[in-house]
């Protein structure tokens, strides 16, 4: 793999040198949309270009969904999904260091309460029941939606806090196209990726490969030692690579056959706590391999649409001599119907899964079967009132799952040529089956119940534009009750999973994006704010002191602000991110809040017919010393530069 990486780098600079001899010119084009937009109008009209049933988000008319722009995905292609959300969203990430494990928390829920999928396939490990966002490369994806708020009806088991939907799609651009992306940064951080697409309009193939690595030997203040001496971090490097292969083939005018495959290999040292930084006998590493493959067929027949998929997933993790692995086979089918006007739509489907774990701490005979059926409906009652509803039911080996209904409403009281005001509301019941580790690690925990939640939310969206100026804003308020929340708690000399009777979460989200012109410059100013109040209301113990207190590692306040200035072919930006005070596992032990500032610039140049994008970023500009998780060092000021060649 090291040889392949070297060849990519040599090829990149060799090609750049050849074509630069012919001359360099700056090119102008439409400025990239680097903002995240909330799509206000959820009424979707059926067209002949669609070759599959409507996506789940179409039925979430009253919910808050953020769609990542193509520009923001390209600009962070050399990063992980954790890096993307840290830069672009106000949601909280629990991180154990740069490039280390990173888990998302939406509205105060745990990381296992947010589902992450790629083209409909779950990326969560069946054993752990959660997704480490530091493992997921942005480079592989073309589209990304973040659904804020629970809705298992749409996205399946586990979507109590929200859902991240990642997608790849054919471009249908005739001929050969692609890119080579290289990046370098502080602490010997390197990334190289290459993508080649070939299309003859009827068939398209995409091959992507990447390699990333870092040493991460950065300076930090050791707050466990007298005088808080400055030390350099040990045992915190990583090396990963991945391959993505896709083939899309059109059948007739309205059907599509898709084959998708990806493989990730992630070797990572486990960053020690600052107290153990000089204790090499405690150092360890973890090795992950993840494989996904699927074959799907979809199409459109008049007003009816259909899709079927079979997929296979295998996840393998080795820590010292322990192996945690699982394979999963999934089959699904769905069908939809939409009227010619798109005012009425239905969608229904069924999925079946078979999971086979290979874990030393489980009994040899453990397997699991899951079956789900669902039905969704959407109707435009009037030109400015849309309602949707749905229900999902599941059967899982050894677990009971409630019926999961949802209801959404969208009302547009104001719609003119340049202004739209939308009011929305949503309510849902969601659930999550205990993970395999919850049920079988160190014994059979048959007493565990499935987690369940009830969520209600309401909000508004405002969109306005005039000439080169525009304003998009949203406000959401929500309340959620999670019952039987699973936590691992001490039971004598061991830890066992238990169901916490009730956890309540309430709060709100707000955001705005203002675009204005200043001479030849286009200015964008964005702000996102999250208020999260998540507390345990009922405990397993009668006199539990943590009842009524904010859950551990859940900031009540967090916000992100940004200013971007574009003048073709240049772009400048400043980002400021605030993460509020958090408690640790001890409710009386508080980690201080921190504010991080990033600045960056990019330029686009044309070398003959080839397009290059140059990016440079300084992160943590003011050298803030902070810890996201207690005793785990985070980097101070550092930098990153990248070059992307599109051909």
Task: Describe what you observe in this structure.
The protein is mainly beta and about 650 residues long. It has a single domain, classed as Maltoporin, Chain A (Beta Barrel). It has five helices and 35 strands. The strands form five sheets. It has a 22-stranded antiparallel beta barrel. The protein is globular, with a radius of gyration of 25 Å. The chain starts with a helix and ends with a strand. The relative contact order is 0.14. The N terminus is likely disordered.
What labels would you give this structure?
647 residues, 35 strands, single chain, Maltoporin, Chain A, globular
How many domains? The number is 1
What is the makeup of the main sheet? 22 strands, antiparallel, barrel
Counted by DSSP, the helix tally is 5
Output the CATH class name.
Mainly Beta
Uncertain regions: pLDDT < 50 for 5+ in a row? 1-48
Distance between the termini: 24 Å
* Overall radius of gyration: 25 Å
* C-alpha geometry: globular
Percentage of residues in DSSP E strands: over 45%
SS class: mainly beta
CATH architectural arrangement: Beta Barrel
CATH H-level homologous superfamily name: TonB-dependent receptor, beta-barrel domain
> What value does the average pLDDT take?
91
Q: Summarize the amount of helix as a percent range.
A: under 10%
Number of strands: 35
CATH overall fold name: Maltoporin, Chain A
């Amino acid at each position: 793999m090291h040889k392949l990486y070297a060849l990519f780098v040599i090829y990149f600079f060799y090609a750049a040198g050849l074509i630069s001899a012919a001359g360099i010119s700056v090119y102008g084009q439409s400025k990239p949309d680097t903002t995240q937009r909330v799509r206000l109008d959820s009424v979707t009209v059926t067209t002949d270009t669609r070759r599959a049933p409507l996506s789940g988000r179409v039925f979430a008319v009253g919910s808050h969904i953020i769609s990542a722009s193509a520009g923001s995905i390209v600009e962070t292609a050399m990063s992980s999904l954790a890096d993307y959300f840290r830069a672009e969203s106000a949601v909280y990430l629990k991180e154990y260091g740069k490039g280390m494990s990173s888990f998302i928390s939406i509205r105060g829920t745990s990381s296992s309460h947010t589902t992450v999928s790629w083209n409909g396939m779950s990326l969560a490990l069946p054993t752990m029941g959660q997704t480490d966002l530091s493992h997921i490369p942005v480079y592989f994806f073309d589209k990304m939606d973040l659904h804020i708020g629970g809705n298992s009806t749409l996205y399946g088991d586990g979507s109590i806090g929200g859902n991240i939907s990642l997608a790849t799609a054919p471009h249908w651009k005739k001929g050969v196209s692609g890119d080579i992306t290289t990046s370098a940064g502080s602490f010997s951080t390197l990334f190289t990726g290459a993508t080649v697409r070939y299309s003859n309009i009827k068939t398209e193939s995409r091959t992507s490969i990447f390699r990333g690595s870092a040493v991460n030997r950065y300076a930090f203040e050791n707050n466990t030692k007298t005088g808080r001496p400055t030390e350099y971090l040990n045992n915190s490097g990583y090396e990963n690579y991945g391959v993505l292969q896709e083939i899309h083939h059109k059948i007739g005018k309205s059907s599509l056959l898709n084959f998708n495959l990806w493989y990730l290999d992630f070797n990572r040292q486990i960053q020690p706590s600052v107290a153990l930084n000089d204790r090499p006998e405690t150092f360890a590493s973890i090795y992950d391999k993840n494989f996904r493959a699927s074959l799907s067929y979809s199409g459109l027949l008049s007003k009816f649409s259909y899709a079927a998929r079979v997929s296979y997933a295998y996840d393998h993790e080795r820590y010292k001599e322990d192996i945690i692995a699982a394979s999963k086979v999934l089959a699904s089918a769905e069908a939809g119907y939409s009227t010619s006007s798109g005012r009425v739509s239905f969608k229904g489907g069924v999925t079946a899964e078979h999971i086979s774990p290979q874990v030393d701490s489980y009994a040899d005979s453990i397997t699991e079967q899951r079956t789900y059926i669902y039905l969704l409906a959407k109707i435009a009652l009037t030109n400015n009132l849309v309602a949707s509803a749905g229900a999902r039911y599941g059967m899982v080996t050894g677990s009971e799952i409630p019926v999961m209904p949802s209801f959404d409403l969208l009302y547009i009281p104001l719609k003119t040529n340049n202004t739209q005001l939308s009011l929305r509301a949503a309510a849902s019941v969601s659930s999550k089956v205990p993970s395999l580790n919850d049920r079988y690690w160190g014994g059979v925990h048959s007493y565990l119940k499935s987690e369940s939640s009830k969520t209600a939310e309401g909000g508004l969206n405002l969109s306005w534009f005039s000439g080169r100026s525009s304003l998009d804003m949203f406000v959401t308020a929500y309340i959620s009750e999670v019952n039987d929340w699973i936590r691992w708690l001490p039971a004598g000399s061991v830890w066992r999973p238990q169901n916490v009777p009730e956890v309540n979460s309430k709060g709100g989200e707000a955001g705005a994006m203002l675009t204005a012109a200043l001479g030849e410059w286009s200015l964008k100013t964005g702000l996102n704010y999250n208020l999260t109040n998540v507390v345990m209301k009922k405990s397993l113990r009668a006199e539990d002191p943590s009842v009524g207190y904010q859950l551990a590692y859940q900031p009540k306040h967090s916000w992100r602000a940004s200013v971007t200035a574009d003048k073709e072919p240049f772009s400048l930006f400043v980002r400021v991110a605030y993460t509020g005070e958090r408690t640790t596992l001890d409710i009386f032990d508080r980690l201080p809040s921190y504010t991080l500032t990033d600045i960056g610039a990019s330029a686009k140049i044309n070398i003959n017919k080839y397009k290059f994008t140059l990016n440079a970023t300084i992160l943590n500009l003011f050298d803030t010393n902070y810890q996201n998780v207690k005793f785990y060092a985070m980097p101070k000021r550092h930098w990153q530069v990248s070059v992307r060649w599109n051909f």
